[in-house]
Amino acid sequence: MTSQSVIATATPIANASSASAFHIYRTEAKYEFLKTLRQPAYVIPTLTFPLIFYAMFGIVFGGKQAIGATNVATYLLATYATFGVMGASLFGFAVGVAIERGFGWLQVKRASPMPPLAYLAAKAAMSTIFSAILMTGLYALATGFGGVHLSPARFLGLAGTLIAGSVVFCAMGLVIGCYSAPNAAPGVVNVVFLPMSFCSGLWLPMPILPKLLQHAAPFLPPYHLAQLALQQIGFEGTGPAWQHVAALAAFTVVFLLLARRGFKRDDVNVNA
């Protein structure tokens, strides 16, 4: 067989394999989204709490106050969008992985011919969709009732930044899901999520928080994503963007290594 015939034979096989893998990833993501959509315990808090908090603190109490050259409503649009994306990612991964791990469903998926990354990619896609829905709602609320004047281009920059940065919270949620019992995972997420959000300046503007929290905030991942989000709406923030990107990348690597250790621990327990 000539080299040309080998290439001609291999090309359709490679194309078929790529198409099959794409179909698997797409199908897994589709049913992960539909499954989550039927869980009001996830959908309602994820899509409503950031909207309610923003309406209270950004529109009702914020009024026409300003932080530097940025009004409070615009400032808090960035931070509450960060808060919402963080919650969608943490709860989407932590609770789902903990439940599926605890009941053995994760082991079944890992034993199937499905590509290992399809499971994680599906959860990431689901979190991204809910994050996009939430950010669209916040944008509509801010422009319609908060007097925020943010161009669609700036909003898309904000949304893209937050969705890219949500990887760190997907990884954090994966860690919680790997080490928590199914019934304990929601509580663990809340214990981590709510204090970390407040201390990172997501609920109230960072300049009005106590000095102790202002000094502690850079050691928390939400702070760095919030600073990147604020830069997208025209607020200078603290420090250059590359420092915040580097910090988020470092947090992501640490969380992924911890999650890998958790998966290996499960493998040892199953084999034992």
Describe the protein.
With 272 residues, this protein is an all-alpha fold. It has one domain. Helices cover 79% and strands 1% of the residues. The protein contains 11 helices and 2 strands. Helix 3 (72-102) packs parallel to helix 7 (167-179), helix 3 runs antiparallel to helix 8 (185-199) and helix 10 crosses helix 11. The longest helix has 35 residues, at 3-37. It is globular, with a radius of gyration of 21 Å. Residues 1-16 have low confidence and may be disordered.
Salient structural properties:
272 residues, mainly alpha, two-stranded antiparallel sheet, 1% strand, globular, disordered N terminus
Give the neighbour order of strands across the main sheet: 1-2
List the secondary-structure elements in sequence, H or E.
HHEEHHHHHHHHH
The count of strands amounts to 2
Biggest sheet, open or closed, and with what strands and sense? 2 strands, antiparallel
Secondary structure class reads: mainly alpha
Q: What best-fitting shape do the alpha-carbon axes yield? A: globular
Number of domains: 1
**Count of discrete alpha- or pi-helical segments spanning 4 or more residues:** 11
Helix content: over 70%
Flag low-confidence runs.
1-16
